[in-house]
């Protein structure tokens, strides 16, 4: 049994080194600016497909980090993604995190409007939060609502688009990427079928850690 | 744009049909008794590697379902996995769900003992819960603690072993599987590096839905 006795921070550092080595061995060229995000998603999934799957709009990481450093609201489409976002890093930057999927008013509104909770929650969030970052790891519907709202003039700080699945998911991610790029909104998306709450949270965390490291270089040993 | 307008239950049914068709096309033979679990994990990840990665001890699904039908405690090693387990299905069966990772007493105890929160939380859970099901989607340490406790006489109802990662993860899953099988404890494990909180929750949900469907066939349209 080859068990390595490490502190969590050491395990993470070792994992990231292994991921970097394997990416190099596979001949994958990751742009330096996207490396923290790509490696953290692979760290979260052990799935090297994400070396090819992740789409970044122009300068997406720098633009997202810039927003996070100012302390913005971060909205997720599932409580699972919400629970995966690092509260420590978010609070450190003055960011707050929100998910409305299980809010009693949203459940009531979805019933009244005969729509899904994902639709009602996302509609509410785009009305209640200005200049917020949106991270979608579950419901393609949430991305369609977001795309519609952006086309109607809503300007989120950024969009992380990573729902997983077999129905409407590929289409939802293609739609949000094209709408975000048309309206110059930074977007990071896991293209294709793959993704999930852990992937959405991993992308947000990579951005939060990068932003926090810029504020306090080396202070927390993040990344 | 090929968007299908479906209710969530229809989307799930369509997804499961697509997964079944693709498994057949890939020539993957999934044992009938494991199908609900395998398909739900693929549904959660869009990763067909799980058709090969999932290990089931003898009659694991039937034995786990039997326990869940009696209404047991389910312990997870992360709040993300906890948040992914269906509370509706759990409550329907009289099962309760617990995670101690963020409990103030556990954080204090981990500091006092100079250990990790995963270790302290799992030690506490094995002392506080008798005949509970354990679902581990994050910390290999949690599996090592569980294996140690089982070797010392602790008898969990079942173990779901699905942490993800590059350090100690493969070893932890091999260890827990061999210990569980030696002590005749049902175990379902995502072998290799892959897994995660969503995978652990998906396995538990597949078991919960199967158990609930046996109580009320067709009542909820689960699965």
Keywords:
globular, 6-stranded mixed beta sheet, alpha/beta, homodimer, 223 residues
Specify the biggest β-sheet of chain A.
6 strands, mixed
Number of beta-strand segments of chain A: 6
What is the ordering of alpha helices and beta strands of chain A? HHHEHEHHEHHEHEHEH
Portion of residues in beta strands of chain A equals 5-15%
Radius of gyration of chain A: 17 Å
Largest interface, with counts of residues having CB < 8 Å to the other chain, equals: A-B, 43 and 42 residues
Derived from helix and strand composition plus strand pairing, the structural class of chain A reads alpha/beta
Mean pLDDT of chain A: 94
Residue stretches of chain A low in confidence (pLDDT < 50, at least 5 long) are none
**First-residue to last-residue Cα separation of chain A:** 28 Å
Number of helices of chain A: 11
Quaternary form: homodimer
Which descriptor suits the 3D outline of chain A? globular
Characterization of the model:
The structure is a homodimer of 223-residue chains. Chain A is of the alpha/beta class. In chain A, 55% of the residues lie in helices and 10% in strands. The first copy, chain A, has helices spanning 8-25, 35-45, 50-53, 60-69, 79-84, 87-93, 104-112, 117-128, 140-151, 169-182, 197-215; strands at residues 54-56, 73-76, 96-98, 133-136, 158-161, 187-190. In chain A, strands 1-6-5-4-2-3 form a six-stranded mixed sheet, sandwiched between helices. In chain A, strand 5 (158-161), helix 10 and strand 6 (187-190) form a beta-alpha-beta unit. In chain A, helix 2 packs across helix 11. In chain A, 52% of the residues are buried. The A-B interface holds A 1-4, 6-8, 11, 14-15, 18-19, 43-47, 49, 79-80, 82-84, 116, 144, 164-169, 171-172, 174-175, 192-198, 201 and B 1-4, 6-8, 11, 14-15, 18-19, 43-47, 79-80, 82-84, 116, 144, 164-169, 171-172, 174-175, 192-198, 201.
């Amino acid at each position: 049994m080859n068990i390595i006795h490490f502190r969590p921070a050491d395990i993470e550092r070792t994992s990231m080194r292994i991921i970097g080595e394997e990416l190099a061995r596979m001949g994958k060229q990751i742009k330096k600016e996207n490396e923290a995000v790509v490696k953290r998603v692979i760290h979260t999934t052990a799935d090297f497909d994400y070396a090819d799957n992740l789409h970044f709009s122009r300068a997406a990481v720098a633009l997202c980090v810039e927003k996070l450093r100012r302390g913005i609201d971060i909205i997720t489409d599932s409580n699972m993604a919400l629970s995966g976002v690092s509260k420590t890093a978010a609070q450190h930057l003055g960011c707050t995190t929100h998910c409305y999927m299980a809010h009693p008013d949203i459940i009531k509104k979805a019933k009244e409007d005969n729509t899904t909770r994902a639709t009602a929650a996302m509609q509410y969030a785009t009305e209640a939060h200005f200049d917020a970052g949106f991270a979608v790891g579950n419901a393609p519907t949430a991305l369609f609502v977001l795309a519609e709202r952006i086309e109607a003039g809503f300007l989120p700080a950024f969009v992380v688009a990573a729902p997983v699945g077999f129905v409407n998911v590929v289409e939802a991610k293609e739609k949000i990427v094209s709408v975000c790029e048309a309206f110059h909104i930074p977007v990071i998306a896991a293209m294709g079928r793959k993704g999930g709450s852990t992937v959405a949270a991993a992308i947000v965390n990579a951005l939060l850690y990068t932003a926090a490291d810029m504020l306090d270089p080396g202070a927390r040993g993040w990344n």
